[in-house]
Design brief:
This protein is 36% helix and 21% strand. Strands 1, 2, 3, 4, 5, 6, 7, 9 and 12 form a 9-stranded mixed sheet that branches. It is built from 10 helices and 13 strands. The two termini are 36 Å apart. The protein is globular, with a radius of gyration of 19 Å.
């Protein structure tokens, strides 16, 4: 089994699914960061070191570990508007011998396109602070790629759902809201499709440095459609619909600022990838049948 040395800045749900996939085909030598104190951990039989990294404070052993890795996955979002990976490790990254650096961004960089389709060449006009911070971080990674000829690629992720985090869990917790916004279009992506695409790019001999890709499924649609489908699967009555101005949670209000359909044509063309979950229906049926 081929060995792979991989460093994960952040070890959330996307990184974990990705590493789990890799462990089936590779002998994975994993190093990761977390906000917790430095400690040894085990993930599905993989013994690894998790190093402390919080804002500007980090375990100095991280510097040596970066030098010894072949692949780097960055899934830490900007903190208070700053990409803390670039801020703290820019110099070490510039001089490291790395074959693959992947930065996970978000489709919030596009902003509002009034329900129209967007692709990787569309205008970027983020309407939320998170979108603006993501765009600023993207520019820093692309600048690093161009100046130092580093193998950096960026994936803009649509709304992620998985067997652990999904609308069924929100319904059961009482947090799910049905908002009266029938013409508001959103794109989604199942976490397994994200992990599969990342694995495909890792297996390539040479990535297309500086390339940006959208990760979304085939069927953007209003959130109310997804909610209705989930409630029908669960055979429970839907709560009262609310208006946008009744939403108290700022993050949820921001969610409804943008309306767009995110195209996935580029990943299909470049990677010849067929989605495992082409729409929310396949994804939710799989989750419901296996875990609800």
């Amino acid at each position: 089994m081929k060995k792979i040395n991989i460093f994960c800045f952040g070890f959330g749900q996307v990184a974990k699914y990705f590493i789990y996939n890799l462990s089936k085909k590779y002998d994975v030598n994993l190093v990761a960061t977390s906000r917790e104190k430095t400690q040894k951990k085990n993930f599905f039989g993989i013994n690894y070191n998790s190093y402390h990294f919080l804002d500007d404070n980090f375990d100095r052993d991280i510097l040596d570990k970066i030098k010894n890795c072949d692949h780097i996955l960055v899934s830490i979002p900007p903190i208070n508007g700053t990409d803390i990976v670039i801020k703290n490790f820019k110099k070490i990254l510039e001089n490291a011998e790395i074959n693959w650096i992947t930065y996970l961004s978000a489709t919030s960089v596009y902003g509002d396109h009034q329900g129209k389709w967007v692709d990787e060449k569309s205008e970027l006009n983020p309407s939320t602070d998170n979108g603006k911070y993501r765009l600023a971080a993207e520019k820093m990674w692309i600048d690093l790629c161009n100046r130092k000829k580093l193998p950096i690629q960026i994936f803009r992720l649509s709304g992620i759902y998985s067997s652990e985090r999904n609308i069924f869990e929100r319904i059961k917790s009482g947090l799910q809201k049905i908002v009266n916004k029938p013409d508001q279009f959103f794109s989604r992506i199942h976490i397994e499709d994200i992990a599969n695409i990342l694995e495909i790019t890792l297996g390539q001999k040479k990535i297309q440095a500086g390339e940006i890709y959208n990760l979304s499924d085939d069927y953007p649609c209003p959130s109310i459609e997804v909610a209705n489908y989930a409630y029908n699967l669960m055979k429970i009555s839907k709560p009262k619909m609310i208006e946008i101005d009744e939403i108290k949670n700022e993050m949820l209000r921001n969610f409804y600022k943008d309306s767009k359909k995110v195209s996935n044509k580029k990943i299909k063309k470049v990677f010849s990838y067929k989605l495992k979950f082409p729409t929310y229906k396949e994804g939710l049926n799989s989750i419901f049948n296996h875990s609800v």
